[in-house]
Amino acid sequence: MFLAWKGASGFILGGWSVGGIPTMASGRPFKLTQSGDTWNNDALWPRPNAVQGVSPHLEERTADARFNTSAFIRSTTYGTAPRNPVVGLGLHTLDLSFSKAFRMPFKEEHALLFRAEMFNISNTPQQ
Q1: Considering only CA atoms, which of 20, 32, 31, 28 is closest in space to residue 94?
Q2: Does residue 123 fall inside a structural domain?
Q3: Which pTM value belongs to this model?
Q4: Is residue 39 part of a domain?
Q5: For residue 100, how many C-alpha atoms fall within 13 Å in the half-sphere facing its CB?
Q6: Which alpha helices (DSSP H) does the chain contain, by range?
Q7: What distance in Å separates the CA atoms of residue 5 and residue 25, rounded to the nearest whole number?
Q8: What is the pLDDT of residues 64-84, one digit of tens each?
Q9: For the segment 17-37, what is each residue's pLDDT rounded down to a tens digit?
């Protein structure tokens, strides 16, 4: 059943709109490189070697540890690390908006719009 507000209560409580945008994205794969020219042949950002039997994935990722660094060692020849072996952190946010249209008494097609927008309402840290 639709409630029709009348008078002052209808002016204050009626006409509200609520909207939301949830964003849930998985992380993107990225490549690992090592700095420096260990080959002495002007190689820029070569791949490291992958350690056999050690997984680069962690059970719980934090801002300080996004992948298992002991799964890779510095290479002196062409590295054995695969292409894009690690997936970055994802994005999980919720954006909300509230708006209310106040009709102008002198012309019905005119309205004054009040709008409030809140981004990342759950305050989820993005790393």
Answers
A1: 20
A2: no
A3: 0.55
A4: yes
A5: 8
A6: 7-13
A7: 41
A8: 788 888 888 888 777 888 888
A9: 999 999 998 888 888 888 776
